[in-house]
Amino acid sequence: MIKAVIFDIDNTMYDFDGAHQTAMDALAAYMKENFGIGSEETAALMKKCMDIIAERTGDSAAKHNRLLRFQCILEQLGSTDYWKAMEMYHVYWDALIEVMEPEPGLIPLLRRLRERGIRLGIGSDMTAYVQYRKLKRMGVLQYMDFLVISEEAGAEKPTQRFFELCLKKAGCEPGECVFIGDSLKKDVTGAAKYGMAGTWYNPKNREAEEAAGYPVITSFEEYLRGEGQMNISEDEEK
């Protein structure tokens, strides 16, 4: 019997890749105006500083912190105008959050599951403040019974520590919990390793050997029409 469904956020609840490109375009315009560098150099600096910050912080939510990455970019440029790191932070995230839209069918699915007495949660890597902003923007916070973000868990997916906190907050046994996400490694096989029903959100119909045997959702709208593989029967829901 399924008692809880946990959703990843980025590239599951909304199209992170598309929103990220919009944010990078806004950041590139800022960098051109303030530092005279183009979009390719901006992207290269972002990649370099992402790796540097990941090495500095280790496998923790801090490695996702854009403020630290932008501080690093200023260091790479030899600038001590650190207030600009805050400006870059807001340029990037404000642009990304402005264009975010929940995946088609997501909100009706959340409503349907809540109506059937299933607890709903979030299980996401990242820093908490930004993820809260995203959830508010999409209008999904009101449907959530609990949230687990890696900054709070003190560990990233697919660690046991992360999924144990998810189960603790869900208040159910692993076999009573569905975990939906776009990452096969982190969300699907990660959750399944600890007994949860890892389910792959795959709207682009990617093919992967490691997906064999796991439920796949290509569209939340299809699931609502009864065409998906996340099978939660009427009997299971009571």
Characterize the structure shown.
The protein is of the alpha/beta class and 238 residues long. 50% of the residues lie in helices and 11% in strands. It has helices spanning 16-35, 39-57, 66-77, 83-99, 106-115, 128-138, 150-153, 160-170, 184-193, 220-224, and strands at 4-7, 119-124, 146-149, 177-181, 197-201, 216-217. A 6-stranded parallel β-sheet has the order 3-2-1-4-5-6. Helix 2 (39-57) crosses helix 3 and helix 3 crosses helix 4. The protein is elongated, with a radius of gyration of 19 Å.
Strand content: 5-15%
Rg calculated over all Cα atoms: 19 Å
Mean pLDDT: 93
Please give the alpha-carbon distance between the first and last residues.
8 Å
Largest beta sheet: what is the strand line-up? 3-2-1-4-5-6
| H and E string | EHHHHHEHEHHEHEEH
Summarize the biggest pleated sheet. 6 strands, parallel
Task: Set down the secondary structure blueprint.
Elements: E1 4-7, H1 16-35, H2 39-57, H3 66-77, H4 83-99, H5 106-115, E2 119-124, H6 128-138, E3 146-149, H7 150-153, H8 160-170, E4 177-181, H9 184-193, E5 197-201, E6 216-217, H10 220-224
Parallel strand pairs: 1-2, 1-4, 2-3, 4-5, 5-6
Helix pairs in contact: 1-2, 1-4, 2-3, 3-4
Would you summarize the structure shown here?
The protein has 10 helices and 6 strands; from the N terminus they run βαααααβαβααβαββα. The protein is of the alpha/beta class and 238 residues long.
Jot down its keywords.
six-stranded parallel β-sheet, alpha/beta, 238 residues
